[in-house]
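Re: the request from the purification team.
They wanted to know what the chain is likely to look like in 3D before they choose a buffer screen. I agreed to run a prediction and write the result into the notebook, where they can find it.
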Amino acid sequence: MAAYFVRDYSMLHWVLTSACGIYLLYFCTIPESVRWLYATDRKEKGKKLLMKIAKENKKTLPKEVAIKSNKVDQKGSLIDLIRTPNMRKKTIIICLNWFTTSLVYYGLTLNTSDLAGSPYLNYTLSIAAEIPPIFICFFMYKYIGRRITQISALLLAGIALLSILALPKGCISLILDPKL
């Protein structure tokens, strides 16, 4: 969207980078989570942070504060992903799924400039088309579950992409070209 207003690529680079730089200012000011501090045996720092939060909220802390920490004695490693046959199968499926989804997504997104019409409008429309599925998938995950949602989303995307092959050559640019 910024590229529509800032056409010079070097200035566009600075505009986008400076927007990201604002978040770096917050990085230094946001404290660690109290639960994280307790889980990593930094209880004194966690207690000080709790006291600071209580002071800002005009509350008083009890003398003994009990924080439940999910401290794990044993850390996992990458080998754990392939140690058992079941876990190995799940890891391979997830990696292939991520690879395929990313490849198709970036292929479609980067090729919007090849469509007829304004590349800025085409890109904006392709990004806007992603917003409704985000909300639909959120509710599907919540009420139907992860597996059915994932399967239906991938099947719908596959059918939509394969249906493009049935269209006559040049038909896609006719649909998206506002001049016709």
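For the purification team: The mean pLDDT is 82.
Please add any questions underneath this entry.
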